[in-house]
Design goal:
The chain has 132 residues and is mainly alpha-helical. It is 62% helix and 0% strand. The termini are far apart.
Length: 132
């Protein structure tokens, strides 16, 4: 069965059913939740673009996992430095620029996992640049 992933009916949400709960999973304090929710529209657009591209479920799942990790790492930094007034889109752009920053718990990642995270950041940076 050939599915048109560009149609309105087909969405990345079929493969990311917990997407709307991501901000709760990143939350350490109450302020984190609102900031995390502000990241979701950009994440949704990126995931939909990947889904529409026709990536295999396995590859898509890798991107999804790294994207979730990116969101959690952004929230950790925002919370640590109390940067809740910073523009979430600008914070996101900074976070993925130049292969991205090192995510939380990077020291527990293999070299292959770090390289995959960097690839996701490069691809997300390109997506953000094209969707201005």
């Amino acid at each position: 069965m050939n599915v048109d992933r560009n149609s309105e009916a087909e969405s990345f949400r079929a493969w990311v059913p917990d997407f709307d709960r991501w901000p709760q999973s990143w939350m350490g304090v109450a302020e984190d939740l609102a900031y995390g929710r502000k990241l979701l529209p950009c994440f949704a657009g990126f995931l939909q673009a990947l889904y529409a591209e026709g990536l295999s479920r396995k590859i898509f799942t890798h991107y999804r996992g790294h994207l979730w990790l990116l969101g959690g790492s952004i929230i950790s930094r925002v919370s640590l430095y109390e940067e809740y007034l910073d523009d979430p889109l600008e914070k996101l752009r900074e976070s993925v620029a130049d292969d991205g920053f090192l995510p939380d718990h990077y020291d527990q990642m293999t070299q292959a996992e770090l390289k995959a995270f960097e690839r996701m950041c490069r691809r997300f940076e390109k997506y953000l640049g094209e969707s201005k």
